[in-house]
Amino acid sequence: MIENQPSPSDYQNVAFECLIQAYKSICKVDNEELAEGILRSDIWDYNEIVLKTSVILTHQALEALLKSKISEIDPLLLLEQKQEKDKTSKKPVKCDFTDLYTISGQELLKIFFTNVDSSDYDKKLANHFEEVRLLRNKLVHGIGADKLNPEPVLILIFRTFTFLCGKDSFWDALQDKFYEHPAQLEGEPKFVFERADQYVHLEYLESLLGRGEMNKHFEHDFKARRYFCPDCTGEEGVLVTEDGQASLYPNFKYTFLSPNEADSNNVNCLVCSQDFEVERVDCNKKDCKGNVIFIDRDDEDIDEETGEVYTEPTKICLTCNEIQ
Ligand SMILES: [Zn+2]
Ligand SMILES: [Zn+2]
Known about the structure:
The chain is α+β, with helices and mostly antiparallel strands. 41% of the residues lie in helices and 11% in strands. It contains eight helices and eleven strands. The protein has a five-stranded antiparallel β-sheet, with no helix packed on it. Strands 1-2 form a two-stranded parallel ribbon. A hairpin with a 5-residue loop joins strand 3 (237-240) and strand 4 (246-249). It starts with a strand and ends in a 7-residue tail after the last strand. Bound molecules: zinc ion (2 copies). One zinc ion binds at residues 283, 285, 288, 290, 317, 319-320, 322.
């Protein structure tokens, strides 16, 4: 009798925490330690331990995610030593799952592919596992590892999420597990993961990894036309740049047609996860080629009985953000 058997979500939680921590540490260096006049590569040489730790955490997470998937079938498949019988009483010995040896490495991958339906998973998973395992071994033993750079390590983190949990799983976990800091309710803005911070993360990742790589890990098509969000664009107010130009902040475009079709009447914002109704007519501003117009029905006033329209809904072009 084996007590305290783990559930798939136990392993998944551990994995996501490792991966988000690996990501957070890299992101923190890039966002807090870069200084004018100093090469980014010098900053990263100094911080290489952050990248090493992130690889080790990614390896840990990868094993935990494989265990999560295997334990969906049967957690006992994870045990190296099978349950021992008490020979005198012929009754099963009671023991705790955490006291037993669990499989790892090559064995884990073998058990995974012989027990789960591998058609659900990316064919590149086995190669990815091998790449992370070898790199982690080199780092742990301190021999033969090339100098690490942040971008490839970020891609290892992304792939671990996507290959095992699907597109958007990185972003969902990040939104879920970022700053749940105890001080955030005490008015400490630096600990709060606001929507404006989410825009900064998307900008950071996109500028570092490029749209092609982002498309491998997000459902939305980063190469498609993108729009302002009717709700969270400009939420923080106005940003005045050095040359005196004022713009809304945040003003990054992470809202997409959903579905992504020419006649789609809906957009979805990656940051606030909301859907918004749009109509597909040309913007009436001279220099704007936009044709995705948000219909804000909050302002609409219609007599329910007669259907008479007292006040029209407000319409805003999500390309130039101008009222129509
Ligand atoms: Zn939004
Ligand atoms: Zn427009």
